[in-house]
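Appendix B. Chain record.
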Amino acid sequence: MKKMKKIMAGSTAAALVLGLAACGGAPAEDTDSGAAEGELSGKVTVWTASLAGEPFDSYFADIEAEFETMHPDVDIVIEDIPQGEMEQKVLTSLTSNDVPDVVNLNPHFMSNIAAQGGLLDLTGKLSEGTETMYVEGPFEAGKYDEGLYALPWYLTTTVSWYNGANFEAAGVSELPTTPMDLYETAKKVTDATGKPAYYPVINDGNAIMEKMVTLAGGDDIVTDGVASFADNAAILEYFEVAQKMYAEGIIPQEAAEGSIKTGQELYMAGNTSLIEGGVTFLGPVESGAPEIYNASKAGQPIAAADAPVNVAVMNFAVPSKTDNEAAAIAFTEFITNDVNQLEFAKVAGTVLPSTTAALEDSYFTEPGDSPKALGMKQAAEALDRAEVLIPPTENSAELRDATKTIFVKTLQGAMTPQDALTELEAQWNAAFEKTGETVSF
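Structure tokens predicted for this chain:
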């Protein structure tokens, strides 16, 4: 499996924007997989992931109607499946004759299903020009074992959220970019507020894995299935600083639980001032803690200016057992084209499109001055250095579990940071040896 490539905005963006203007906002006819209007026919069942209810119901109703107007003999049926059930439902459907034609997957689910022969390889089957529409990283996330199994749809990237009022009270005007900067900044905020300042998101361990890759600054921490990060100075410094801040009350005790939800609750209550997350993080803050929302500001993730940061990708794939391959591919191209991706991003309000032209729209370049709008602008700017930092692997659950367990022990002082990284490296290598994977990231 190859390392995901860095997202580049690309020189095609201006040309694509001009193309959109020329067509007056209507999707180009090359989105129908080369078929002339009206040639496609039959039923296309589309499974989306956890997008039921408004405003998404109206968006998908419009998508159905427009595609069916373009192709009167096609019947589009869109069904929403809970995200947690999607992978198993797709795999189960492949053992029967009741198979969807288009499915909404993340790269991990996509690669697992593709590895079992469950997805159609789209290589050579797309309309001319389709592949050049997308920013590179999300497009590469649709590849597995040299084949192309999905087209990218919407994206999320991580930004830093901070309480501007607390930062101002502490005399802090810039976000930290190194672990030691983080300590010094967070200590000033804690001293000024009397409350913990920084909440490190751990989740299931994946967030810490991504932070480790970012801190490595573009150098692999795993090469051909061999982990090597115990002697990385920046990663070691982060573990040391995190342990120090936890012991000094700069990181709240609740951080050992580590979920973004807990961090969000603390931030809303004014009990932490700096946290990293997607734009979706601010939704509950806006409705549940308007004073904190109005004080919120957004910036780039805590990393060097040229360090890679993570992008999460949701895509669309076509199951290999589809009975309507041509129409399924045509619809996949249609729903992921520039116009429809831009409209979906506006409807969702907290995600980014994956086409270069849509990202050039003023909705992202001139979003306004609300905290959420500025967060979207920072998220879009982060795409210049964003990658899928952790590629899907067979042993991903073991890597995440080891990372979470050892990082929490480090926070709580049960391990020295150096011993923690040495042990974590050993556990990762044991996991890679067991599966025989030769991945690099």
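Further analysis of this model is presented in Appendix C.
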